[in-house]
Structure formats: C-alpha cells, structure tokens
C-alpha cells in the first residue's frame, strides 16, 4: 500500500529537491546546541495580542551570544499564507511562531516531516542555570502539548487557563459568593436574576467558548479517563455519563432562562462588552480576556477568573481543577538553513528573563516556571495565577480540537444548537458521537493516541 | 507586407497570452491536477487518488448543505436584485410626473449617485456593518422593529437557522442593487425617445411602455446582470465568513461552497479535496452561465 502510494505520488511544485546543507558548529559548554559560527538566523513570528516585545527580547539575548550572526525578525498577521509556499519549496525560516487564525495545521506539518525534533533543546542547560535543563523549566503539560506521535515537535509559550469570569466589585456589592458546585451555580443564578442582571452571557457566534465550561464539567465528573476516551475517539465516548451530565448542566442554564437574551447571536467582542458593562454576571473565557478587554473595562471592575465549579460533590477530579493548555506554538522547521541556531533562539526565548518580560508586556502567563513570582500582577492575571496554584497538578486539557479539526467543527455546531435551545443533551451527544465515529472510520485522517 | 503583419500580431499578442497562461491558465490546470490527489498543502509530494475526492463530495453533509444554500441564493439573489434594479432604474428614467415624462422622478441624478454608494464599500466592511444591524437586543433592525411596535418580530437574526441565510442574502442584494441600477439606467437612457413618445401618443401607459418597449430594448443588460449575479450568488464566502455564527451556522444554515472549500484547505489541510470542490464549483458556474445565456436568449432588436 505504502509502496503504491510512493510510486503514484508526484511533485506538486518545482521545489522540494534536496534540502540545502545544514551546518552545525562545535558543541561546547557555552554553545551546548552546536550553533555554527556566524550563521544567520531568521525568525518569523505571529504578531497578535501578545505583541512582539518578547520575541525581540530573545533576539537581543541571541545576538549577545552570537555577535557574528545577523538576525532577521519579522512579525506577521497571517503566518500560514506567507509560510506555506516557503515550506513547500523547502526554504522555511529558522524559527516560526505558528499562531493566530491564519496558522498552518501543525499536525499536517509534523506528518509531512517539516519539523525538527526539539528533544535536544529540552535536554540543553537553561540560560538561567546550567544545572537546570530547558525542559525542567516548563510548566506541566507544555511538553505533552507539543508532542505529536512521540516527537516533541513544537513548544508553546503562553499558558492559557479557562474558567468563568466575573467582576469582583459587582459580586461584593451584591454579597454573592462563588459557587462550589453546579447546583450552587444554579441557585446563585436565580439570585442574580432577582437583582435584575442576566446571570450568564457567552460568545454565541463562536460556540467553542461555551464548550470549555461544558468539557471542564465533564472532565471534573469523569476524570482523565473520560478526557482520554474522547481524545482517542473511543466508541460512545461522547455518551459517557459525565459528558451527558455536563451537557445537561449547561443546558439547565438555557432551560432556566439564565442566559442574557440574544447571546447566541453575539460575537466575542459584543458578549464581552455586555459583560464588562454589567449586563451579565458570568462569562466563560480563557485567560486572554483581560488583555482583550483592556480598553473597555470600567475602572474598579476588578475582573477575576474562577475555576468552573464541580459538577457534583462526588467528582473524579478534586476541587479547583482547571482546564489549561499552552498556546503560541514555536517550532523549528526541518528544512531550515540554521536549525541549531533556531534551537538556541528558543533557549533564549524560554529563559526566565524573557518570560518575566512577557508576563509584564503581554499580561499573560508564560510557560516558564516561577516567571511571575514577585511581579505586581493585574487583578485578572493574579486570579489566573492563583487558580493555577490551587489546581497544582490537576490541570487537564483536551486534544481533539487540534488533532481532529473536522470533529471540532461539528462539536461547535452541536453546542450552538444546545445553547440556542434547539437541541437537548441527548441529541447533542448523538450528533457529536456520529461525527466522532465518522472521523474514527476515515482512514485519510491521521490518528493520535494519548 | 502580409508577413510583417503576422509578425506584428504575434508580437503584440504573445506577452498578454503568456501572462494569461502563467497567471490564469496554469493555476487552473494545477487545481485540476490537485483535485485528483491527496495533497496536504505542506509537503512537496502528493499521491494520486483518482476521482475519490469527487466521490467523497456527495456524502459530505457540509458540502451538500453548502450546495443547497448556494442554490437558494442562486434563485433569490439574481431575481430580487434584477427586479429591484429594474424598478429603480425605471423610476429614474421613466417615472417622472406628467411634465417630466421620460426624465425620471425629481432628483433622479442624486438618487443615481446615492444608489451607487454600497458599491464603494468593501465586502468586509459591509459584513461588519450589517453585523451591527442584525445584533440581537439593541441592533439597528431590532430597534427599528421595536420603535414601530413590531416587538414580536424581533429576534437574533443571524443566530436563528430560519433567518440567518435570508439575512445574509439580503445584504448581498442590498449591496448589488445600486450597481445594476446604474447599468440599467444607462441602458434605458439609450432607448430612443421617439420610440417612447410614439408609444405614449398611441396611448400606452408608463407600465406598458416599460414592459413593451424599455425592457425588450435593455434585455442584453439584464442577461449580463443575470450571469454576474449568478456568479456572485455562488460565492458569498466573505459575507458568511464575517457575519454568520460559527461561521457557516447556526446548524450549517449559512454554509456556502466557498467556506467549505476554505475550511477543507486551511483548517483540515486537505488541499486535494478542496481543489475538487473548486473544480466542481467551476463546472457548476460554467454550466449555469451557459444555461442562463441560452434561456434568456431573445431576438436582438436592431435600432439603426
């Protein structure tokens, strides 16, 4: 079968001939990754919400270490459009931050053999302390997030935590306390409604925002086994008890009239602005919301994130478990001219110094351990750091969204229908299960296992 | 001398033909080839899979939903746009009172400019603007309905599967009408006034003049408009991408072929499959154009 495919395959473009010579330098204590002397370096990064300050900071460190090298640094909005032809023709840059809406499909890049194995980088001594490796500096889950088929193919820079957001001042004013279980949540919703405020709103145009609390509830109830069953496309994974109970819990918000009217038609900006202006008490979101709402958050709003409440009192995961994942994927193309330099650039990037700068300039959590210690954090970021602290090792994440985008689209459509009240939890689960079965049965889709 | 003429012709034609070949024909040819492969868009190699991509299309629920929605738009957009544009153009040229007969309603020059405004906005801006119009709660449309006491009609226009596609289609029609008003007005103005006057003297009312004289004489323009609008209706990608829930939702209610294609290529990394969709769309467009030209064919009226 494989032989036949090889015979039948042809070149798509004129490129893709033998890759250019990749030089390496001598490995020394000062140059643990063997960067060739005087080799130039090209960094292409996604210029998004986090800005370019931290990647430029790392350029400065790299230039100090390799004074003879010329470093080119470019920030782009549409990374995929610009880099796709360069990957195909075998002339990619040395480091890429493959992020943003226009990013390349990283699983497809890995499957096409376009990525350098980052194992050498993880084993290299960190810039901060030669006794600690780069890998040891990373928060839990970061290496796993970047591992495809057993190879560390990319490393994410920003640590995102999902939860439900509220205004501390609003809650203090009304004397509301954060719910510990979902039943408490529903009771609190009644109380909030009594005060003339909608308990919830959500970013209806992009249903994945509401999928995050739903799948968090499911993970808490069923534990990591439930999560793995879903990611591994196990039969009836979406019909597990915990998943159905979580869908029912979210559906109760709809049935109880706890959602701001019309939310299902709001864009993320519209919904978040409605929340910021006090029309709704809760909104589900990842930890980037504070930066996103910077310009419109009223004085004294004091936004904070709470972990999604427990589904029941007998959940599999302990209280305070949160959904977390890393994002902003940095990778070193396999066909780069200076891959060793690319690795060393990442070594600079994943240093404590650059990470601290990132927390300050981008107002987000870097994946480097202890980088926010001693920093004066904003109210939202502080609440995120505290939630991570409480969660400890109980940070979970789903992979199906990155592994099987075909499934994610159907999950979002079904969730939109659930939240609009046009589907009940049973129909929601059936629909997604059918899509998951279809993906599982499709041989043309590369499968992953965890 | 003859020899020199051909050399000149070839010399003049070669550069544009070469450019056309490199930038138009060769990408088409490449798309046709890629449609037969499983290219992932990133590797330099692609395996041939024959017609498998085309076979898969007909069991892909998203593609079928897209086909249905584009089909609906294909019926509504050209018909509604041409009807409205003809109506406005007739008002601008024929609609004047008794004393302005043949010169259109008062201020028609101004209307002509105003109608053209939407044409000056990019589709992206249109999408964003109309997103505000359709915003649930305090959006312009719901506010307007509330102001005139029609609260019962207020809804989340883009989040309701029953109204999402009509809402997007309405924007397409709104943005296209102005251009065709200008096109039809120009055509109507070239209708000789003596013919119109003769008909009027014979006692024909304005509607009869429009139906019996103006419309047949501007039929060529209508035919062209129909083809252009048909192609527009088969696209709709940008508006859907910006305005709709999902995008393409709710419940695939606004899925269009362009969006399915885009997602297959750039989200799923199935460039071969996406190319197959593109090729299918190419043939659908080609067939419809040929059909439209044939169905609307009428005897040409020579005025000379």
Briefly say what this structure is.
Chain A is α/β, with parallel strands linked by helices and 450 residues long. Chain A has two domains: 41-160 and 325-379, Periplasmic binding protein-like II (D-Maltodextrin-Binding Protein, domain 2); 162-323 and 398-441, Periplasmic binding protein-like II (D-Maltodextrin-Binding Protein, domain 2), CATH 3.40.190.10.
What does the model show?
The complex is a heterodimer of chains A (450) and B (304). Chain A is an alpha/beta fold and 450 residues long. Chain A contains 18 helices and 13 strands. In chain A, strand 5 (147-148) and strand 6 (151-152) form a beta hairpin. In chain A, helix 2 (53-65) packs across helix 13. Chain A is globular and about 70 Å long. Chain B is mainly α and 304 residues long. Chain B has a single domain (51-295), classed as MetI-like (MetI-like fold), CATH 1.10.3720.10. Chain B has 13 helices and one strand. Chain B has helices spanning 2-34, 52-57, 61-93, 108-120, 123-133, 140-147, 161-189, 193-201, 206-217, 219-233, 237-243, 257-266, 271-295; one strand at 45-46. The two termini of chain B are 37 Å apart. The mean pLDDT of chain B is 88. The interface between A and B is large, with 48 and 39 residues. Strand 1 of chain A pairs antiparallel with strand 1 of chain B, so a sheet runs across the interface.
């Amino acid at each position: 079968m494989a032989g036949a495919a090889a015979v039948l395959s042809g070149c798509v473009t004129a490129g893709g001939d033998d890759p250019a010579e990749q030089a390496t330098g001598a490995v020394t204590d000062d140059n643990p990754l063997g960067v060739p002397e005087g080799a130039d370096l090209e960094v292409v990064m996604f210029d998004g919400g986090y800005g370019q300050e931290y990647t430029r900071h790392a350029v400065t460190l790299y230039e100090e270490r390799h004074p003879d090298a010329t470093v080119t640094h470019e920030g782009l909005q549409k990374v995929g459009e610009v880099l796709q032809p360069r990957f195909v023709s075998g002339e990619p840059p040395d480091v890429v931050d493959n992020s943003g809406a226009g990013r390349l499909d990283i699983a497809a890049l890995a499957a096409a053999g376009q990525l350098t194995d980052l194992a050498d980088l993880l084993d290299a001594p960190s810039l901060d302390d030669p006794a600690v490796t780069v890998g040891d500096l990373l928060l839990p889950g970061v290496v796993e997030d970047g591992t495809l088929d057993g190879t560390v193919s990319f490393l994410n820079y920003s640590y995102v935590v999902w939860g439900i957001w509220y205004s501390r001042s609003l809650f203090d004013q009304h004397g509301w306390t954060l719910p510990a279980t979902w039943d408490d949540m529903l009771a609190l919703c009644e109380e909030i409604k009594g005060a003339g405020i909608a308990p919830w709103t959500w970013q209806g145009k992009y249903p994945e925002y509401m999928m995050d609390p739903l799948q968090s509830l499911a993970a808490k109830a069923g534990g990591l086994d439930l999560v793995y069953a879903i990611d591994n496309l196990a039969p009836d994974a979406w019909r597990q008890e915990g998943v159905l109970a979580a869908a029912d819990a979210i559906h109760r918000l709809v049935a109880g009239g706890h959602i701001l009217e019309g939310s299902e038609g709001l864009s993320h900006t519209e919904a978040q602005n409605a929340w910021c202006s006090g029309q709704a008490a809760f909104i589900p979101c990842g930890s980037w919301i504070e930066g996103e709402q910077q310009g419109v958050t009223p004085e004294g709003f004091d936004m904070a994130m709470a972990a999604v409440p427990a589904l029941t009192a007998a959940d599999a995961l302990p209280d305070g478990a949160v959904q977390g994942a890393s994002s902003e994927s940095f990778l070193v193309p396999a066909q780069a001219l200076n891959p060793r330099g690319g690795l060393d650039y990442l070594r600079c990037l994943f240093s404590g110094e650059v990470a601290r700068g990132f927390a300050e300039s981008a107002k987000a959590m870097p994946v480097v351990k202890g980088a926010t210690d001693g920093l004066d954090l904003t109210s939202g970021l502080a609440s995120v750091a505290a939630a991570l602290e409480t969660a400890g090792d109980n940070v979970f994440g789903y992979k199906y969204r990155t592994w099987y985008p075909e499934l994610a689209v159907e999950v979002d459509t079904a969730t939109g229908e659930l939240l609009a009240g046009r589907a009940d939890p049973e129909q929601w689960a059936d629909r997604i299960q059918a899509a998951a079965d279809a993906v599982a049965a499709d041989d043309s889709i590369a499968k992953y296992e965890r | 001398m003859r020899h020199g003429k051909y050399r000149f012709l070839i010399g003049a034609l070669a550069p544009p033909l070469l450019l056309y070949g490199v930038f138009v024909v060769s990408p088409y040819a490449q798309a046709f080839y890629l449609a037969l492969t499983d290219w992932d868009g990133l590797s330099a190699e692609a395996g041939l899979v024959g017609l498998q991509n085309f076979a898969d299309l007909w069991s892909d629920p998203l593609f079928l939903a897209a086909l249905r929605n584009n089909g609906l738009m294909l019926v509504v957009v050209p018909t509604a746009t041409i009807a409205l544009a003809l109506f406005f153009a007739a008002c601008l040229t024929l609609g004047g009172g008794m004393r302005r007969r043949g010169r259109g309603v008062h201020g028609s020059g101004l209307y002509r400019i105003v109608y053209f405004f939407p044409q000056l906005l990019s589709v992206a801006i249109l999408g964003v603007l109309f997103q505000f119009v359709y915003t649930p709660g305090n959006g312009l449309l719901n506010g307007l309905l509330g102001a005139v006491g029609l609260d019962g009609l207020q809804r989340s226009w883009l989040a309701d599967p029953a109204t999402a596609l009509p809402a997007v289609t309405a924007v397409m029609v709104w943005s296209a009408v102005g251009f065709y008003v200008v096109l039809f007005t120009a055509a109507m103005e070239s209708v000789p006034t003596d013919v119109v006057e003769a008909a009027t003297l014979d006692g024909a009312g304005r509607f009869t003049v429009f139906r019996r004289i103006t419309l047949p004489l501007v039929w060529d323009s209508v035919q062209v408009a129909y083809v252009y609008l048909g192609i527009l209706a088969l696209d709709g990608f940008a508006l859907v991408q910006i305005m709709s829930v999902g995008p393409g939702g709710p419940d695939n209610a606004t899925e269009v072929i362009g969006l399915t294609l885009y997602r297959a290529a750039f989200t799923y990394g199935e460039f071969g499959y996406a190319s197959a969709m593109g090729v299918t769309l190419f043939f659908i467009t080609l067939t419809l154009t040929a059909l439209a030209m044939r169905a609307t064919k009428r005897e040409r009226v020579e005025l000379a």
